[in-house]
Amino acid sequence: MGKLKKISSVSFVGSGNVATHLAHGLSNIGIEIVEVYSVNPENANRFASRLNCSVAKDPDNLKEVDLIIIAVPDSKIEEVAVKFHGARSMVVHTSGITSMNSLGGNISYGVFYPLQTFSLQKDVDLKDVPFCIEANNKDNFNLLFELASRLSTNVKRLDSENRKILHLTAVMVNNFSNHLYHLAFDILKENNLDFDFLIPLIQETALKVKDIHPADAQTGPARRQDISSMKEHLRMLDSFPEFREVYKLLSEQIKKKYHE
Amino acid sequence: MGKLKKISSVSFVGSGNVATHLAHGLSNIGIEIVEVYSVNPENANRFASRLNCSVAKDPDNLKEVDLIIIAVPDSKIEEVAVKFHGARSMVVHTSGITSMNSLGGNISYGVFYPLQTFSLQKDVDLKDVPFCIEANNKDNFNLLFELASRLSTNVKRLDSENRKILHLTAVMVNNFSNHLYHLAFDILKENNLDFDFLIPLIQETALKVKDIHPADAQTGPARRQDISSMKEHLRMLDSFPEFREVYKLLSEQIKKKYHE
Fold first, then answer.
1. Cβ contacts of B175 on chain A, cutoff 8 Å
2. pLDDT at B259
């Protein structure tokens, strides 16, 4: 296979949140999206009509393209990748937690991990999204890095071990914060109060840590070791046992960080 | 006392984060900041030199002003308020959790609660901050509401019971999210990875819930019920017991929300 100068054609295995957002981003910079395969035909059709590409009936016979992006649940990556052993197309996955070695049977392979949360209901500007890149050799690395750099100003080389750590912390700041929003939403709703009250606070909390260390950004009853407020909060949470447990654990941890 | 048309002079008891940010905001809209009293003379001096006001030696003899704002720890509000029983100045506190009745011995009183996180190191634009207002009568309510409306476009009447619920959820989305950032920071640091990797994700997480319900915004291993990723994460957290406990509890709760 001759050396590619640039990636210009891409197919996808998977048609969920990550695949859809990436495909839109790639399409917007002039990359041809050739085919999509998904175990879920409905999703594949939605993806194909949005991206104006073909739906592949099975992954074994994808056309040769510069890059096949596997964006499927982590547990399925290896069994999908096996289908491309021997294929001339470069193969990458988009997973934070999965080692690059899961693609080790392929000729050309790597990782193309966008560190962001994607939902179909919301557009995301990829320009600021950190892309973590890894590849089986320098040429492939350069191709992937160049491609990511056309999508984002924030592209980094990261090995599988470090990517896994990053992904773990991403779960913490994204999934878990969002769960806190969800709990707050439920309590406010129960009391006929509008979640919109919290939006400016949520924004400011996220903005603050751009500028100051989270330890300095901390405020509130646990930070101040205001025992009576914490007791009152726990009493209020008697009928919200889930929230109560979270409140207890996190307040204890914050108290410890500042007062031990 | 004749009825005021508008509040134009304010003194503060307390010189911490909330007092300082409020005083700056009030000063910027032309309110005269007359005096500050604080149990911490160093803070009081810093406040006074920033705000170009006098330092009161004790709170018993504050000059008469249109409004005295008590911005001290929740547990101190009542003992401070007692000093103004009989004073002609209107007295408010800025606490989320403290009932307005804690000021019940005063002639004119209310609550002036800005729902935001304030740190001295970071400016906050008050324009979007929700101000929750309550007062002992309609005239005082109108005065406080008018004042808050000059600071912010987001002013609401809220009674003590609802304000307390709102404050509890504010702790959840602010203090607890920030604690998650802190834990993530520590793990990344331990592994020589830069916290800046997470900033775009943190921002997006906060932006997302402006537009879509937190239940729809959720992504990640627990949402997908990706057991093997969760197991791997817990294994990685063996040496971070605090983080591990948080991971377990919140993942369990997310799983339940979507899969039971």
1. 218-223, 250, 254
2. 77
Measured between CA atoms, how close is B85 to chain A, in angstroms? 24
- pLDDT recorded at residue A164: 97
Per this entry, what is the length of chain B? 260
Please answer whether residues B260 and A256 qualify as being in contact, where contact means their C-beta atoms are separated by less than 8 angstroms: no
Q: pLDDT confidence of B60, banded at 50, 70, 90? A: confident
Given phi > 0 = left and psi -120 to 50 = alpha, else beta, which region is B257? alpha
Confidence of residue B5 (pLDDT cuts 50, 70, 90): confident
Q: First and final CA of chain A: distance in angstroms?
A: 62
Residue A159's SS3 state is: coil
Establish how many alpha carbons lie within 13 A of residue A244's alpha carbon, considering only the half-sphere containing its beta carbon.
10
Q: Are B144 and B103 contacting, i.e. CB atoms less than 8 angstroms apart?
A: no
Question: Which tokens go with A230?
Answer: 């914490």
The distance between the two most distant Cα atoms of chain B, rounded to a whole number of Å, is: 71
Question: In residues, how long is chain A?
Answer: 260
Query: A193 φ, ψ to 5°?
Result: -110, 150
| Residue A231, number of CB atoms within 10 A of its CB | 11
Question: CA A148 to CA A154: how far, in whole Å?
Answer: 8
Instruction: Output the pTM of the full model.
Output: 0.93
Of A115, A170, A211, the CB nearest to B122: A211
Note the pLDDT tens digit of each residue in A59-72. Answer: 888 999 999 999 99
Q: Which residue has the tokens 């109560």?
A: A244
| Nearby residues of B34 by Cβ (< 8 Å), 6 or more positions away | B9, B10, B11, B53, B54, B63, B65
Assess contact for B38 and B13: CB atoms under 8 A.
Answer: yes
- A232 CB neighbours in chain B (<8 A) are 97, 164
Question: Which amino acid would we find at residue B188?
Answer: L
Residues facing residue A109 across a β-bridge? A91
Tell me how far apart the alpha carbons of residues B81 and B70 are, in angstroms, rounded to a whole number. Answer: 8
User: Do the chains contact at B201 and A232, CB–CB below 8 Å?
Assistant: no
Residue A239 CA from chain centroid, whole number: 34
**Residue B221: count of CB within 10 angstroms of its CB:** 25
Q: Calculate helix-pair angle for B241-259, A241-259, nearest 10 degrees.
A: 160
b/e map of B80-117 (b: 16 or more CB within 10 Å)? bbebbeebebbbbbbbbbbbbebbeebebbbbbbbbbb
pLDDT at B2: 58
Distance between alpha carbon B43 and the CA centroid of its chain, in Å? 19
Q: What is the pLDDT of residues A109-167, one digit of tens each?
A: 999 999 999 998 889 999 999 999 999 999 999 999 999 999 999 999 999 999 999 99
Return the structure tokens found at B7. Answer: 């509040």
Backbone angles phi, psi at A67, to 5 degrees: -150, 130
